[in-house]
Amino acid sequence: MPSLKKPVTPEKALLRLADLCASAERCRHELEQKLRTWGIAPSDAERILEKLEKQHFVDDARFARAFVHDAVTFRRKGRLAITRDLMLKHISRDVIDEALDAIDEDEYRDNLRAVLRAKLRSLGGLPDDGTGLTREARLKLARHAASRGYEPSLIFAALDLGDDGF
Asked: pTM for the full model?
């Protein structure tokens, strides 16, 4: 049975991608995937992407900065998870490093502490006897923070401060 969908022309694809980019930051890799799913020939796809870059609809460095900002501010992710996510989007290491340099260290450490406090609440909080965290609780907290992409050195430093570690 023939497909009922009309094929996407390169001109239509350009307009669709421009609309997508105008509504939210996109990286080149995401747009390449869209073009592939629409059946656009590689040569046409390259021409479309170059036009979008020339018109500043797509910019991987701008995308990376926005991605890092949102990941830190709203999702409270750590640098390692952010780096992994950006690498999966085929963002170059130099661009990733530049975007990560913009992270406010105080906000980042506050986020780590908030992630640890939230996990501690889910574990039932501190014991009533005032002895502080058990080794098992510290390990659970450390594993959780690591799964969120925080660096081990920061995690262990946060867990070693004060009675409750944060």
From this structure: 0.87
